[in-house]
Amino acid sequence: MSLLFSPFRLGGLELPNRLVVPPMCQYRAIEGSAQPWHLVQIGSLALSGAGLVIMEATAVEDIGRITHHCLSLYNDAHEAALTDLVAKLRTVAPRCAFGIQLAHAGRKASRDRHWNKRLQIPVNEGGWETVGPSPIAFGAGWAPPRALDEAGLARVREAFVDAAKRADRCGFDHIEIHAAHGYLLSAFLSPIANERTDRYGASREGRMRFPLEVFTAIREVWPTTKAFGVRINATEFDERGTQIEDAVVLARELDKIGVDYVALSAGNAVPGRPHPPLVRGYQVGYSEQVRKESGAVTMAVGMILDAFQAEEILASGKADLIAIGRAFLDNPRWGWHAANLLGAPDVYPKPHVSARPELWPGYAMLHPDYAASRS
């Protein structure tokens, strides 16, 4: 039995397999609400064979959006659109679990869509004032954020809680909180962005305090029959920033709260900083170390490209779940081909079974790697 395609219990959620499509921003919402694009995009990925598909970073308040075009979940219109979306997705892919990532962009908000190659939009051009732990700009060309005071912290904390309640009512099986890549919760964790001298800064314990308050408050309202995860940075690729040791400590604290898994990402917290070579599985080692040293369930992500690589990561104990992102954008049927290569049970939707290799001679012609695996 393939480990990648074996069932896995994540919190209170029974997943049909360990293959996950992680959140990937689309910037196609209108006034924060989901559109036909989201139905087609998520529906296509849900037919892939993955056990869990997670919708993109979704803003918990208006100033928490990355762009004007971000999916949001802070009013009734947003909730109604996503409720309708989830209901329709259930009819398309009844075996797939559906999740949503809740996020606040913090000091990296108020920017243009990345394909326009423009950074932050000034307030006088339709942007908005951003917030952060300290009034430190993300980089050159970015405005310093307004440091959150006690009232602001309470507002953001409640915004995350309210969005989690809405996500539950929408019918999502899972939520993931974005605390990586230099966005608001990540910025609180980072010595680069957080220079506070109050109880929400000054030490690793202080920098963790506000994010942990948010996670704890969400845990109190999110059903234990569903799944709850957090994405964090294993490192910021900067000697001044968070390191893998900080991620291990945070993962232990998340486990105490009752968070069901930690997704290990890295970087994007400082502009223009070098990354390590972008080789296959370049972030998998972070998942392995955090899993071993904290005991937390981990999700690996980052240049995981083929079925045998994914299977080896699980077999060697480097992660519990495998997230495949851009490889799924490149090939939305990645899961079908992985299952065929690994000899896993059928993951094809019934209307598409005629494309299975034993029913279509053209499959082996189009996929020589499959033919080679059977020779």
Question: Characteristics of this structure?
Answer:
single chain, 375 residues, alpha/beta, TIM Barrel, two-stranded antiparallel sheet
Protein architecture, described:
The protein is an alpha/beta fold. It has 2 domains: 8-344, TIM Barrel (Alpha-Beta Barrel); 349-375, no CATH class. Helices cover 35% and strands 14% of the residues. An 8-stranded parallel barrel has the order 3-4-5-8-9-10-11-12, surrounded by 6 helices. Strands 1-2 form a two-stranded antiparallel ribbon. Helix 1 (36-46) links the parallel strand 3 (19-21) and strand 4. Helix 1 (36-46) packs parallel to helix 2, helix 2 (76-92) packs parallel to helix 3 and helix 6 packs across helix 7.
Regions with pLDDT < 50 over 5+ consecutive residues? none
- The proportion of residues forming helix, as a percent range, comes to 25-40%
Distance between the termini: 20 Å
Give the count of helical stretches. 12
Major β-sheet profile: 8 strands, parallel, barrel
Strand content: 5-15%
- Oligomeric form of this entry? single chain
Give the averaged pLDDT, no decimals.
96
Judged by helices, strands and strand pairing, the structural class is: alpha/beta
Whole-number radius of gyration? 20 Å
